[in-house]
Amino acid sequence: MQFIQSLRRTLYRWQQKMLYSVIKTRVIGPDTSEFNLSSDQPVVYALLSPSHAEQLVIDKEVTQFGWTSPNEERLSRRLSAKPFFNLYKRTGIFRRKGSPTVAKQLVKHASWLAEDEQRDIQIIPVRVFWGKAPDKEGSFLKIWLQNSGALGGRLVTLMAILLNGRNTFVHFSKPVSLRELYEADKSPEVLARKVSRILRVHNRQVSASVLGPDLSHRRTLVHNIPRKPMVLKAIQQEVESKGISKAKAQQQALKYADEIASNISYTNVRFLYVLLTWVWNKIYNGVNLHNIETLKDVSKDNEIIYVPCHRSHIDYLLLSYVLYVQGLQLPQIAAGINLNMPVVGPILRRGGAFFMRRTFRDNPLYAAVFDEYLHTIFSNGYATEYFVEGGRSRTGRTLNPKAGMLAMTLRSYLRDSKKPIIFMPVYTGYEKVFEAGSYLGELRGKKKKKESIFGLLGTLRSFKKSFGKVHVTFGNPIYLTDFLDQEKPDWQQQDYQACQFRPDWAPEVVNKLALKVATEINNAASVNPINLLALSILSAPRQAMDEHTLIRQMESYRDLLEQTPYSDITALPEGNGIEWLAYAEKLGVFSRSKHPMGDLIQTDDRQAVTLTYYRNNVLHLFALPSLIACLFVNNQRYNRDQVHQNIQQLYSFLQAELFLHWRADELDADIDRWLNALVEKGYLFENEQGFHATPTTSNEFAMLRGLADNVMQTLERYFLTISLLIRRGSGSLNAKETEEQSTLLAQRISLLYGINAPEFFDKSLFRTLIQHLQERQLLTKTDDDLLAYNDELKALSDVLEVILDGALRQSILRSLETELPD
């Protein structure tokens, strides 16, 4: 008997070795290290269908986890049946549909459990995907494009292994306790049926999460869009307004649909996977993921819409690469039509990109076709990705969100809300971006270059450089149903057919949703060594610091966020300041000057401007403590109430610009939290008279000043615009004139004071300020569309005058006199 068992084991291992000579596996799904399996209770594995090859794979993978081999579970005779059972039985050699079944092994397991109330069995559902592509309309010859993890005959599985085995994914789900499902008054057969039913539902959720829905043939999808009722209505309007034939209008709608629609190809996806793996290893030091488990948890039951920040063209490829590696469904990606260039466009389209024009407000037919395409992918359960910022951020800050795509998403949801929609914010933190040079030129006034294949080829020179690491953080999900319930409790009781799913309340709700998305993106920010370097050195005179002081300040920033984190998912760098500085030096982001008294770390003009980008990535994390620090660098003492009052007056302006998450009703508590942190660090002292700064000659005061400088320039911008309005007089300028003149004055001040921060004269930031002043009713519009102000604006100016450095404040006022004579 022992000889036979030994022979079986040898044969089993030989089969396993042969299988792994032609396949390459990647484990996906939840983190198996957190399964907390009990060694006292046996483990069994639930498969989709009977498969000896899958059993070989499962045995190999779990052994590598350090778990007990399924064969050992069986040989230990703790179980009365094999440790594998299936949920479906095969029905033919080539047929892909199987019949649900209640496995005999599962019934035996249930019987074994019922014999002793101390017994339990841990069931782990497992899926093995020989390749990972949604089912397509196709033939046996296209089997290598199909997901052979679905049901099929043994010959089908064998072909899939041979053709696609190097791309095998193994998905382990969290264990299910059979004891928890057991009911004493029910038979083992009833328990087995119940478990099978639950696991089949779970299997469908896993399939949707990993593969996505079945892919219709692209031609069918494109040709169906012009036949949809809302598109037909737009076609009729096109006929009436332009006097063209209905056939011509239909042909135009079909052309639009073909221009828009993606054509995802998993041959292309696998090619991109190989290419991008090489790229990340060639020019990046890897991709660090944060909070991925949250995404995995919510992806099973919901339609996921990824809403990443937009820092680089690499964003398009990076997120898809991460999702592919993690075994999650690839999204349909909204891309600007400017990227639909020769060679690149078809590759992106086959990678899941669908293309949209920058504006189509004056083209109702295109708008109807695009709306219908979005509704198709949403209602069919495809994961989707779009950038709410509209374009890439040139300054490193999160841009004001554009609500167009969100509005279309809401319209689609009002049409069909059967499957819940979740917005998944994604923060991407680069240590260096490809486009840094072009961003620098554009911020200095150069015209943006149009994307072209030649420009892409030019970027190949970057492959000789190192761009550090990339950090991708998945934020806290935003549930659309919950958001609507909060903002519009009766939304599900309304009929939207008459208004074509454009209710009057939608614009306000969508704008709030856009702000929520931008705020949650910032909540997911991760901090890297380049961020810390930029925060520290840009606050120093002439952007130069003693090496040891710089190291101390970088560590101080990290310690502040560790002690008082911005959010519960804020990721901080490991290591220490010495390691971070050495790492930054390898990336070439600063210059070093040797000196007998200690090396000096400095930046030239180009390096300084580039570093503002990486400072701005995380500026919001320090906005509140920096604002508090601003109160004390030029004014030595405040009591607690004065601190609260001043911060409350200024906070909403920073919140509008940086998408800060603190609500007005919780701000006081957070101010106190940061005051305590600054006192604990020794930057402030507290006594019976209030808070005051440390002596100006101390190292702690230097740290406090550096912290304040992060938002001091922002306050200077506010003072500049408010002073301009007051100097010109109420009702003298309109919003556009105020914006333009503020920009010109800021450019002048930046030259006079050597402010190497392009956002200091960023026109869009002045626009945001003017809009927020109007929202706060500090500015109102006259009948002539001019801006009138009240005494509250003067009071705000008085607060800023006390905070700001006197010399720079006087320079701003003198510039106003010079530039704007009476």
Q: Topology, pairings included?
A:
Layout: H1 2-20, E1 25-28, E2 43-47, H2 52-65, H3 70-75, E3 84-86, E4 88-89, E5 99-100, H4 104-114, E6 122-130, H5 154-164, E7 168-172, E8 176-177, H6 178-181, H7 188-210, H8 218-224, H9 229-242, H10 246-260, H11 266-283, E9 287-290, H12 292-298, E10 303-308, H13 314-325, E11 332-336, H14 344-350, E12 353-356, H15 364-379, E13 384-385, H16 404-415, E14 421-430, H17 436-443, H18 453-459, E15 470-474, E16 478-479, H19 480-487, H20 506-523, H21 529-537, E17 544-546, H22 547-563, H23 577-586, E18 591-593, E19 600-602, H24 605-617, H25 623-633, E20 637-638, H26 640-658, H27 667-680, E21 684-687, E22 690-693, H28 699-728, H29 735-753, H30 763-775, E23 779-781, E24 787-789, H31 791-803, H32 806-819
Parallel strand pairs: 1-7, 2-3, 2-6, 9-15, 10-13, 10-14, 11-12, 11-13
Antiparallel strand pairs: 4-5, 6-7, 6-8, 14-15, 14-16, 17-19, 18-19, 20-22, 21-22, 23-24
